Amino acid sequence: MKEIKRIAVFTSGGDAPGMNAAIRATVRNALNNDLHVYGIHRGYEGMIDGTIKRLETSDVSNIIHRGGTVLKTARSKRFMTPEGRRQAYENIILHDIDALIAIGGNGTFTGAMTFMQEYPDVPIIGIPGTIDNDLFGTDFSIGFDTAVNTAVQAVDKIRDTADSHNRLFFVEVMGRHSGFLALHTAIAGGAGGVLIPEEDSNIDDLVKLLKRGAKRAKLFSIVIVAEGNHMGTVYDIARLVEEKIEVFDDIKVSVIGHLQRGGSPSSFDRVLASVLGFGAVEALLEGKAGMMVGLRNNRIHHTTFDEAISKSKQFNKELLRMAHILAQ
Ligand code: F6P
Question: What's the CA-to-centroid distance between 219 and ligand 1, angstroms?
Answer without folding.
Answer: 33
